[in-house]
Amino acid sequence: MKSFSFSVEKKIKDGKARAGKIQTPHGDIMTPAFIPVATKATVKSLLPEEVKRAGAQAVLANTYHLYLQPGDELVKEAGGLHKFMNWGGPIITDSGGFQVFSLGVAYGKEISKITKTTDPNLLIPERADDERLPKLAKIGADGVSFKSHLDGSTHYITPEKSIEIQHNLGADIIFAFDECTSPTENDLYQEEALNRTHRWAKRSLEHHKKLLSEFASVSRPSALFGIVQGGRNEALRKKSAKILSEMTVQGNAPHEAGSYGKSLVRTGFDGFGIGGSFAKEDMSTVVKWVNDILPEDKPRHLLGIGEPEDLFMGVENGVDLFDCVLPTRLGRNGTIFTKKGKIHITNAKFTKDFSPIEDSCSCYTCSLYSKAYISYLFKANEMIAGTLATIHNLHFIVHLVEDMRRSIFDGSLELMKKKFLKSYIIS
Amino acid sequence: MKSFSFSVEKKIKDGKARAGKIQTPHGDIMTPAFIPVATKATVKSLLPEEVKRAGAQAVLANTYHLYLQPGDELVKEAGGLHKFMNWGGPIITDSGGFQVFSLGVAYGKEISKITKTTDPNLLIPERADDERLPKLAKIGADGVSFKSHLDGSTHYITPEKSIEIQHNLGADIIFAFDECTSPTENDLYQEEALNRTHRWAKRSLEHHKKLLSEFASVSRPSALFGIVQGGRNEALRKKSAKILSEMTVQGNAPHEAGSYGKSLVRTGFDGFGIGGSFAKEDMSTVVKWVNDILPEDKPRHLLGIGEPEDLFMGVENGVDLFDCVLPTRLGRNGTIFTKKGKIHITNAKFTKDFSPIEDSCSCYTCSLYSKAYISYLFKANEMIAGTLATIHNLHFIVHLVEDMRRSIFDGSLELMKKKFLKSYIIS
What we know:
ArchSynthase1/Queuine_TRR (chains A, B); 2 domains; TIM Barrel; alpha/beta; tRNA_ribo_trans-like (chains A, B); six-stranded parallel beta sheet; globular; homodimer; EC 2.4.2.29 (chains A, B); glycosyltransferase (chains A, B)
């Protein structure tokens, strides 16, 4: 079985966009690539064959959710996530840090992965220990304590615990435990949080290498990515990129079990995530700062981003991987991507529209079903409504990034973007 | 394109069970066969490919539901039900009569397709015009007026209207409009209702032949089945079977358009449904009475029945077709068929059971997923939980009837039934 590697196959002239290949024990990911989210060990409403048929090369599952239910120990006993959920391709798990953020400081507020508001009231610095709203998570120096959103039980996650959970799940690519801060936090808090994230990154890396050395097996994660944080502060973002790029621990090559600490080789992260909750207008600036510093020979994953315009921005700035619930979540709610922008399929004008969502689309849904049928299924609350819409949305986004990859090879990325955004109405 | 025909291929010695073949414009149905229900133009939670992969040869859609939403005219405009829902195989539509029953006299009571109670209080005769409970349907001599369960709008369905709706939907096999009575009705009401059903059957047959002659096209239903009613009254059931068997109207061969009424040929029903709401213990008696009289050369469809033990009873008594929401509805609720009886997959004992639902089962679900995963998906409210359970249940029931067909050919039906029911716990 292949271990983890990354190679840049083509880089555009006068820019940062690049096409590459990530090798994992469960297959390759040709980058740039969009990775659909399988939060709870299933891409909602789709069987794995449909995920693959839509063009997905890998899936990303959420550590936080699977830790709580069914439990990472159970998944390990089942033979790991690949076998448990019947996905033979590469799997990525996140660190749980983002969920800690959304259950903690962001809980009950309108702050998400992308924060569109620039409301000055919301931008008043708030500390994570602000008690005006109920929170399910509390951040300490050593880790995070939180209450399960399922049953209220109390849990404590440290970097070591996060890595252990991710090793039990057995994804191909895992992430260091981090603290995702709100864009509304002040610089003082951002710096404090970032230092914590870096300490946690080091401990994650150490524990990952330790586990690899002690129990090396093909079913263990072969790659660990560090997560760059720092909010929208230039100095902090650059510092984070530099520190994580240079961070190494004593380790040894994969599959050399039983020799932890004995090797003189120092190894670092296999790739990097760019984390954070962004005001939309800050995102490209942050990605630019960070990717100027991150090493060229390691893959970069922009976490939780999936709008077409943001995917272009990321690819142009040297991002290799994206994941986002957007195409699947929107699909289940009847919002569908088209080359002209998003449409709401239950809109009256589609009731008698017997053409496919897009004539030019080769997805399963567009090949066989009309807008009228899908619109009717949503109105009738039929389960396959979400399935059909999700298949198209996933196909749309996955192939959009695949097209970007192709255009990197033939030098037409800029042209392709212009053409796409000329007809696509951003909403 | 083939028109409708039926042939008996094998009949067992010393019994009524038979294997046959129904030819329709959209393919053959090898009988006996279980037909899954696609109430609202979709077998709930499954894409059509999964329905086919589970072994289904045809689907049955509900006229009442499709008439109200999206409307039969819209389905017609879409090119008919086959195209609209992407099901290339044979389609059957019911008459709407059962829904009229369940929204009328049975509304708000514990009376369904199979009524398990023999509570003497419930068996006190009640008339359909009993006003103690709110009803959505009212039966008149000419047809039924009812209120939509969706928006409260008022509708009136006559036999002609039911046939017209079914022609618009364009299924291969359609049913005459009937009144399904409650087993709690007295003999007087049963007789009155039966006479009405027979008058409606005649009008359905006449209107079907008229429409066929006037607008003959390959997209029109090629077969009309009459529905035998009569509650649990022997004389009425036998009378109904005889009258419908002998009922003919002036007609002409299919696809001889524009000659309605000019032909001297008298034609009758292409097959028969056995309708009714049954106390479980009455069902086999009723089926025996009826099938003794119905012609051997026409197919017989026992409407709405799907429990394994009832399928055996039906096949033994010469039934060729069954349909039922049972395997799909139970599947969505986490109740799964096994050779040892039904199991509830969320039961604690399956939490760490990493074996498939049935080792010997060749369905998609059993080939790739563990009980632990399916159990977890139900607890996590994931959409594909219902999909995976439904696939197995459908495969189980469809193949059970397929096995009966095989055993008819090799003379082992009795043995096969004994073997099955020895391990299968009826619940």
